[in-house]
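RECORD TYPE: inverse folding
INPUT: structure tokens
STRUCTURE:
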């Protein structure tokens, strides 16, 4: 091998080393930013009210309910079936809002460096930044089945009033 060939190989080796060092710095910065976003998401809370304003649900960033508030007048204005529907509705709204917020928060990371190779593409066994980001995005919630109204269609406001007048909730009369 000539000196010229050896110098060329050294130059290519040095250029590759600089590229890997740059990717490692980029990876470290991205990892630190993702850790900060993860901490923020751990503290994130999303809340939503049902359409009838009887139920408020609070969820974490993953859309998992952590608190449910029921207005005191809900027991006067609603039936258990309708109240269940209100809880379901508020929970689903929260889950969608939480997923949207997570996607907005992580969007800059998904678009960063899409034209660059991932670290795992260059260094076998190295962690993948793209895989890490994708694992942090919650999956969209599935639609829960809607509670069914009574099948005979005979339920009306008068029945609701009778229900509340004749029930022995809270231990009796």
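DESIGNED SEQUENCE:
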């Amino acid at each position: 091998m000539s000196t010229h060939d050896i110098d060329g190989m050294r130059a290519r080796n040095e250029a590759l080393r600089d590229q890997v060092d740059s990717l490692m710095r980029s990876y470290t910065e991205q990892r630190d930013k993702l850790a900060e976003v993860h901490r923020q998401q751990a503290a994130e809370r999303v809340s939503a009210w049902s359409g009838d304003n009887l139920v408020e649900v609070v969820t974490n960033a993953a859309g998992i309910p952590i608190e449910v508030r029921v207005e005191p007048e809900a027991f006067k204005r609603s039936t258990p079936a309708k109240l269940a529907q209100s809880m379901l509705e508020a929970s689903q709204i929260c889950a969608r809002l939480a997923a949207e917020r997570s996607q907005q928060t992580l969007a800059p990371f998904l678009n960063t460096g899409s034209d660059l190779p991932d670290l795992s593409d260059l260094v076998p066994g190295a962690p993948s930044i793209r895989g890490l980001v994708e694992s942090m995005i919650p999956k969209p919630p599935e639609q829960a089945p809607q509670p069914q109204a009574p099948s005979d269609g005979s339920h009306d406001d008068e029945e609701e009033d009778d229900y509340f007048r004749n029930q022995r909730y809270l231990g009796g009369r």
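NOTES: Strands lie at 45-49, 55-60, 65-70.
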